[in-house]
Design brief:
Number of helices: 4
CATH class of the largest domain: Mainly Beta
Domain Outer membrane protein beta-barrel: 382-784
Subcellular location: Cell outer membrane
Mean pLDDT: 82
Signal peptide: 1-19
Organism: Pedobacter helvus
Pfam family, one: OMP_b-brl_3
Structural class: mainly beta
Number of domains: 3
Distance between the termini: 23 Å
CATH topology of the largest domain: Maltoporin, Chain A
Shape: globular
Number of strands: 43
CATH superfamily of the largest domain: TonB-dependent receptor, beta-barrel domain
Largest sheet: 25 strands, antiparallel
Radius of gyration: 30 Å
Length: 805
């Protein structure tokens, strides 16, 4: 017995030294998560630990039934924690140092407060919900949508709440007159000749999420009444990962894409490419009645069009954690687009007695191409232990496009009218530089946040239009000096902002001021020079939010936005692709200012959320396209500051998740708009716009999933209405080979192609147009992942028990 006691004493004596030698380079971080109000423990809260300034967590797991957590076997160093749970705001704890002097780091009791910014359940073993609703942002998680797989940004945007995509791929936020499109927080729309082309080649597999900002923060440009921010994936977990995908549709569209990422201890390298082809078809009918004091006549037009397009997107990025306080990110992308188009139209002129007096046939051919290159670098520096961060960004963009089109016009009768053949060669070039410097810092014991920054944007646009008419006598093309022109546009914007965010006892208040100095000039090759007087604009914004009873919140916000006229609306070059319906810009346009007010209410439970919103906006000097008809019957379309517009909108957003495998979401908005114009009394009108969307997804047995969406739109315009249109989509997916291989089939508008109906009315005309497009398509997709992304888990040891004896 004595020997046994001696051996036991010896083992207990040397055990600390053995343990210390084995864990000399390892430590632990532990703590407890409770509710701020009531101090009740929160079980199953998600806790993630990050290396300082890193974006990917080192390890993630859930708290136990008593809210306790512990990370074991942690390397010595400085970390940060993120704690989140459904219905509560995320909590960050910075500068947690595990050292030899403090191997067992206890962060103490962490209190979570209710917050609207995180209304959805966060479970590390399940995918994110498709839609998340915040105080001033709606997030669409692309990876959670079956319909998004193997598609492009344009396709994904069609299912994002509050977002509308027209038949030409132009994207807007519902109820907003102008919308900006950003990529990774950087403007992309004004630095490309056609943003629709860029979105149409950007693969969905490279996109992490899409943010819809109705009241963008002060650090973003004040241009536009809202921002759609496309957030790209920054890489995968440690090691080499990636995916390959290919899809094909019954309408002749194909899409091939590949993404790969390698992540080391302090850096990650990502790259990817995609190539797609597509065929679009459209047929329209237009009926216009023209009124004049002495006569009435009719123009009827029937069109058929076909467009075959192709494009590619190639990306590369480097993310480097230089040290614990510094990070450098470099990324670049290159996009190419090309298309061949054909369209034909029959134009009927009918007199007052409803007798057809003229029939014109026109054939249009088009050959289009574009290229876009972007280089971007961002540097961030943690300036102090309180969490202050300085970031600097620099972006260079260059793109070019060429459009060669021909228009051949002949007359079936009367036969004495001569045919004509015209060729338009349009070359467009854009160059741009963006620079931003931002600083944000938690203050007053990290309760509040102070932000300020500076930005400079320069952009140059060259538009060279050459028009030639064919001389049938000499069988040669002759330049048309009246229609040919060169347009040169230069824009410089210098901006600064200051923002302060206050939080206490469930209250959150934010006040910000942004100012922008704008200097614009443009001229024509004809010798006309336009120097817009530089102007300084101020954009205040205020928001107040209150979170109470753990399940409710209410907020109000106010902001001022600007809509600047740019080259597409200023350029006076005449587009006479249809000689009876010409269009051109207006170089005399002024910027339009919009005052926006929003009131939101949120209620949420464990399986549902409901967020109604009421917004009011009042815009002056609204820039709208409007049409008028001359006495010779030729319709002219241009832009003008038509006057004022106000709108009141009610939007309802809801999510319901009865089980972990079933999810439903929907939104409905009704908008009352009223226009008042001092230039054209025909624009003095108002009306209701209705937009709605419903989505449903289900996880089925045998690694199968299903998703469906329904969209409805009926919108008022300045001179009429875009009447009701319905879009439906369905998708099913099955996984194989331990989730590495997935196959998907989706159907877009399976019952019929998308139909459009518009009505317009002016002082001396009204018109109706009806169109149908080949949107009814069935797409098959196969995707293979190199490795399965896993989340490391740490088992929390049970609390020690004590014997009553």
């Amino acid at each position: 017995m004595k020997n046994l006691l001696s051996l036991t004493f010896f083992l207990f004596s040397i055990f600390p030294f053995l343990a210390k030698s084995q864990t000399a380079d390892k430590g632990s971080i532990r703590g407890k998560v409770i509710e701020e109000v009531g101090a009740m423990p929160i079980p199953f809260a998600v806790v993630a630990i990050f290396e300082s300034d890193a974006e990917q967590p080192v390890v993630t797991f859930q708290t136990d039934e008593n809210g306790n957590f512990k990370f074991s076997n942690i390397k010595l160093g400085t970390y940060k924690l993120k704690v989140s749970y459904v219905g509560f705001g995320s909590l960050f704890v910075n500068e947690i140092t595990v050292s030899k002097a403090d191997l067992d780091k206890n962060v103490g009791t962490l209190k979570l407060a209710t917050e609207q910014n995180n209304l959805n359940e966060v479970v590390i073993t399940a995918e994110k919900p498709v839609i998340e609703v915040g105080a001033d942002v709606i997030t669409y998680n692309v990876g959670a949508s079956i319909l998004a797989e193997g598609s492009t940004a344009t396709d994904v945007l069609k299912n994002v709440p509050m977002v509308e995509v027209d038949i030409d791929g132009n994207t807007t936020i519902s109820g907003k007159r102008s919308t900006r499109v950003f990529i990774d927080g950087k403007p992309s729309d004004y630095m490309t000749s056609n943003i629709a082309d860029l979105l149409n080649v950007l693969p969905s597999d490279a996109i992490e999420k899409i943010e819809v900002m109705t009241d963008p923060p002060a650090k973003y440009s004040a241009d536009g009444e809202g921002i759609i921010n496309i957030v790209m994936k920054k890489g995968f977990k440690v090691g080499f990962n990636g995916n390959l995908g290919i899809s094909a549709g019954t309408q002749g569209n194909t899409n091939t894409n590949a993404n790969a990422s390698y992540r080391g201890e302090k850096y990650s390298i990502t790259g990817g490419g995609a190539y797609r082809t597509g065929i679009s078809k459209r047929s329209t009918e237009s009926y216009r009645t023209n009124f004049f004091p002495d006569t009435t006549f009719y123009y009827n037009q029937f069109d058929n069009a076909r467009n075959e397009s192709n494009g590619g997107n190639f990306r590369a990025a480097l993310d480097w954690d230089i040290n614990k306080k510094q990070n450098l990110r470099i990324n670049t992308s290159y996009n190419i687009n090309g298309s061949d188009s054909w369209s034909g139209n029959d134009f009927y002129y009918i007199n007052q007695e409803e007798v057809t007096k003229r029939l014109r046939n026109q054939v249009n051919l088009g050959d289009n191409s574009s290229r876009n290159f972007v280089f971007n670098t961002d540097y961030s520096l943690t300036t102090d232990t309180a969490g202050g961060k300085l970031t600097a960004g620099f972006t260079v963009n260059a793109n070019s496009s060429n459009s060669l089109r021909s228009f051949e016009r002949t007359y079936a009768f009367p036969t004495n009218l001569n045919p004509s053949l015209q060729q338009n060669d349009n070359e467009i070039g854009n160059r741009g530089i963006n620079f931003n410097l931002d600083y944000d810092k938690p203050v007053f014991k990290k309760r509040d946040r102070l932000e300020f920054g500076f930005a400079f944007n320069y952009r140059k646009n060259d538009n060279d239009l050459s028009v030639d008419n064919f001389n049938y006598s000499t069988q040669q093309y002759v330049g048309n000096a009246r229609l040919s022109n060169k347009f040169f546009y230069n824009e410089n914007i210098i901006a600064g902002y200051l923002s302060y965010n206050y939080r206490k006892n469930g209250w959150s208040a934010k006040a910000a001021m942004r100012s922008e100095y704008t200097n614009v000039n443009f001229d024509l090759s004809t010798g006309e020079i336009y120097n817009v007087d530089p102007y300084l604009s101020f954009f205040p914004s205020l928001s107040l939010n209150r979170f109470f009873r753990k399940r409710y919140n209410i907020g109000a916000s106010y902001s001022v936005r600007i809509n600047r006229p740019r080259e597409n609306t200023l350029n006076p070059q005449v587009n006479n692709a249809d000689t009876l319906n010409i269009s051109y810009g207006n170089p005399e346009l002024s910027p339009s200012y919009t005052h926006q007010f929003n009131i939101s209410f949120g209620a949420f439970g464990k399986q549902w959320s409901f967020t109604p919103r009421i917004s009011y906006s009042n815009a002056t000097g609204v820039i709208e396209r409007y049409r008028f008809v001359n006495t010779n019957g030729i319709s002219e379309s241009t832009f003008n500051n038509v006057g004022t517009n106000y709108s009141v909108a009610l939007m309802l957003i809801g999510n319901y998740r009865p089980t972990k495998k079933i999810s439903a979401n929907g939104n409905f908005s009704i908008i009352q708009s009223n226009y008042t114009s001092s230039l054209n009394s025909s624009l003095n009108r108002g009306g209701l716009s209705i937009r709605s969307r419903a989505g449903f997804s289900m996880q089925l047995p045998y690694k199968t999933a299903f998703e469906a969406n329904l969209n409805y739109n009926n919108n008022v315009t300045a001179q009429g209405r875009n009447q009701a249109s319905i879009n439906t989509s369905f998708g099913a997916r099955k996984a194989f080979l331990k989730n590495r291989l997935s196959a998907r089939i989706s159907a877009n508008d399976p019952f019929r192609g998308r139909r459009n109906s518009t009505f317009n009315q002016g002082l001396n005309f009204f018109s109706n147009s009806y169109g149908i497009n080949n949107t009814n398509n069935i797409v098959f997709n196969i995707n293979y992942r190199f490795t399965k992304v896993k989340v490391n888990k740490v088992t929390v040891p049970p609390p020690p028990t004590t014997s009553k004896n």
